[in-house]
Amino acid sequence: MKNLYFLIENYWFKLPQQLRFVLLGGFNTLLSYLIFVFLIKIAAFSYQFSLIAQYLITVNISIFSMRYYVFRSTHSLKTEYSKAWSVYLLMLAFNYLFLYITIDRFQLNILLSQAVYTILSTAITYILHRFYSFRK
């Protein structure tokens, strides 16, 4: 089983960094969105609570998976973790503002608003992580 992991890992790291980001980031984004949907639709929490709870649940998964499987970073975990969290806090603030404007001001659907923000924020998140959080 260990050999299979190393074989898959070997092929994975032959992929271009941007493709690894899209694939792993896509998984992390899907997980984040599904948790957000669950908190809104099943648990019936407000979008404000759901957004913050979803970030708290998924940011650590994202940081550790991006650090190793996308950027292959070997720098200080403490420093990169702090930088990555600062990126996610910035993105959380923008996300919160975006949802406030689209939901409370324009009365758009909560899930559609979050889906649109997710699409818009993907490139920004990659750039911030690439050149700030996990810079070589």
Give an account of the 3D structure.
There is one protein chain. Helix 2 (17-42) packs antiparallel against helix 5 (110-133) and helix 3 (47-70) runs antiparallel to helix 4. The chain is 84% helix and 0% strand. The protein has 136 residues and is an all-alpha fold. It has helices spanning 2-12, 17-42, 47-70, 77-105, 110-133. The chain contains five helices and no strands. The protein has one domain. It is globular and about 50 Å long. The two termini are 32 Å apart. The mean pLDDT is 94.
SSE order and pairing:
Blueprint: H1 2-12, H2 17-42, H3 47-70, H4 77-105, H5 110-133
Q: How many domains is the backbone divided into?
A: 1
Shape: globular
Uncertain segments of ≥5 residues (pLDDT<50)? none
Structural class, by secondary structure, is mainly alpha
Q: Note the gap between the termini.
A: 32 Å
Brief sketch in words of this structure:
By secondary structure, the protein is mostly helical. The chain has one domain (16-133).
Which terms summarize this structure?
136 residues; mainly alpha; 5 helices
